[in-house]
Every structure is written in structure tokens, then in C-alpha cells.
Hints:
- The protein is α/β, with parallel strands linked by helices.
- It has one domain (about 1-240).
- The chain contains seven helices and nine strands.
- A nine-stranded mixed sheet has the order 3-4-1-2-5-6-7-8-9, sandwiched between helices.
- A hairpin with a 5-residue loop joins β1 and β2.
- α1 (about 1-30) packs antiparallel against α2 (about 35-45) and α1 packs across α6 (about 200-220).
- The chain starts with a helix and ends with a helix.
Amino acid sequence: MKKATNFLRQKLEGIHAGLIQSHADSKQYAPSITGAEREIVNRSLLSLALAPGYRVGTGTILDQHGDDSGQVDIVIEQPFSLSFPVSSDQNRLFLAPSVCAAFEVKSDLYRQGDDAMKKIAAIKKLHRILVKSGENHSYDDISIPAFIIGFKGPSTEKGIEKIYKSFSDRLIPNGILSIEGEIFYGRSPGSNKLVIAKGKETSVFAFLQCIAETLQYSGSNDFKLDEFRSLIEKSAKART
């Protein structure tokens, strides 16, 4: 048992070290740092929590009201979902009901934390389901789970909380992972338990656990795309 525990710890240490090294390499050599960081996170981190069938890309999320998120760094779709390529297969137009989770990836949360929060707010304003008058829904069912990943960032709870600003705001991210800061701070949808995990191995594991739980939660909700037909018809009438 002790040997197996050490193996898990060493694997998590290796993942953390790989993220740091890949980011250092991208800053020195990559012509597009944003794209390189996105690829590092997708390949070295998110892929560990993804079962076969999930599609990962970058692009814009559209909801049934016609509102959109603008460009999002990483989007995970539910299996058997529907999205549309825009200029390439990786850059897509996603439909909000079929999105499991969205991620903003930043090089430095000290400098880019506010920009990341604005993007998360734009994602959180979208509706995964159409809410009709008189209906009651959990906001976790309505909104898209969204996370911030920063390579450089705070290493303390107080530092993370400065980025969040207000925990009563419904537009805050589900979680923030500060890779060099070695801290994860957040919660999975459907849970009121805030997780604060510090250290290389613990922060990476807590983040991956939260993402796995997020995918399970999103996958338990049937997504309906019927309302997009009405949206398309309204758009067609507006052009005539």
C-alpha cells in the first residue's frame, strides 16, 4: 500500500514538474504563447480526467437566447454533442447545453487575473437550459462550470480570494488552479464544499478530482437543443 501511495505521489509530482517545464519552454520558443499554454494544459492535465468520447476544443459558446461568450481558451463537450468547426476542427462554435466545462488559461494571474475573471463572467452569464417563468432551478444546472488555470499566480488563500473578489457573485469561477503557486481553490457543481488544496501533488490531484466530478455532474443532465431552432428562425426573419 505504501509503495502504491508513493507511486501516485510521484506521478502527480511529475505532472506538476512537466507543466512547469513545458511552460518555461513555451515562453522561450513558441511563437504563440497563448496557444502553447492552452495545448500544455489540454495535453498534460485535462486529458488525465477525460474518458473517451469527450471532445476538447477552443472557440465561442452560444446559448438559446443568442448570447455568446466570445473566444474561450478550452471547452469540453459532452459525448454525442453538436458543435460546428470555424476555420479549423479545433476552433468551434459550441452550443451551451452540451458544454461540460470551460477554462481560461493565463500565464500570470497577477497581471491577467482580472481579464480571466471577465471571461469567466461572460461564460457564466450563458444558460445551459432555458428557464421559464415560475420554474426553479439550481444555478449549477443553469450555468456552465468554468475554471481559471494560471501558470504563475498566488500561493495563498488570501491571494486567490483577491482574484475572486466576491463569493456572493454568481459569475465567479468554480475554481482556480495556480500551478507555480501550488494551490487549488474551488468546488465542483452540485457541491457546497469549498476545497482548498496546497502543494504540488495535492493541488493537482484536487483540481483533477474537481474536473472529474464536474464532468460526472454535467453528464447526468440531459441537454436539449430544441430552442436553437427558434433562435435560427428568428434570425432568418430578421434578415428578411
